[in-house]
Amino acid sequence: MREACRIVAVILKDLAAAVEPGVKTMVFEELARKRCADFKVKPAFLGMYGFPFALCCSVNEEVVHGFPSDRVLQEGDLVSFDMGVVYDGFYGDSATTVPVGPVNGDRAKLLDVTKESLARGIAQAEAGNDLYDISGAVQKYVEGQGLSVVRRFVGHGIGRKLHEKPEIPNFVPQDAHRLTLLPGMVLAIEPMVTSGGPDVEVLSDNWTAVTKDRSLAAHFEHTVAVTKNGPRILSLAD
Ligand code: MG
Ligand code: MG
Fold first, then answer.
1. What pTM value is reported for the model?
2. What is the spatial distance between Cα 208 and Cα 176, in angstroms, rounded to a whole number?
3. How confident is the model at residue 176 (pLDDT cuts 50, 70, 90)?
């Protein structure tokens, strides 16, 4: 799983390095497929539940599951890449949001808060903690900063399948029941945060999820192993 995740992290780094104004988002799909071929791994999302691309590429108000397209990136856009691969039967999954050129104000805050919320969630991935300690840490931080967590999409267990139990919401559900984290569990923790309300809707392509109020969204994800020595982020490039 570490190798699957390492490859995902390297690909995400390559994608982020290719972000600049004037680039069509389909370029990132081509790059993602090329890098999968280089590493001799299968892109995890292509064909999964019928998803037509190797890469989820979501711009601005698009939260997740956006299609790479002829859309041309503009300075100030926020582009999210969500990438997964299969290596030797194991899945890796990670996501990042990259600004197109320098951003400040609300856009910079959205990126900073989402990234920090992921770090706070990961810090709770300790053996003996409750699963919802992760959810609660993300929610508390994001809402404390005046932003919203998306509720419709959640993180997940990961291993020989992309999506395994348990679901990992970025909020504490009303009917939360305890689930104690144990060494050996591997979790894809992935806060999706908006600068407006938490509601999303899916466009007529049946995939692209956008904020209902068309506010901006950001998405960061790591695959994290619960170990007896604490959380270990697997989706790092080195
Ligand atoms: Mg993902
Ligand atoms: Mg995921």
1. 0.98
2. 28
3. confident
Question: Within 13 Å and on the Cβ side, how many CA atoms surround 163?
Answer: 9
Q: Using one digit for the tens of pLDDT, what is the confidence trace for 37-65?
A: 999 999 999 999 999 999 999 999 999 99
Domains of the chain: 2-233 (3.90.230.10)
Q: Rounded to the nearest 10 degrees, what angle do helices 131-144 and 105-123 cross at?
A: 160
* Tokens standing for residue 109: 């805050």
Distance from the CA of 221 to the center of ligand 1, in angstroms?
Answer: 6
Cis peptide before 102 (omega within 30 of 0): no
For ligand 1, the distance from its centroid to the CA atom of residue 84, given in whole angstroms, is 6
pLDDT tens for each residue of 99-125: 999 999 999 999 999 999 999 999 999
- Report CA(140)–ligand 1 centroid distance (Å): 22
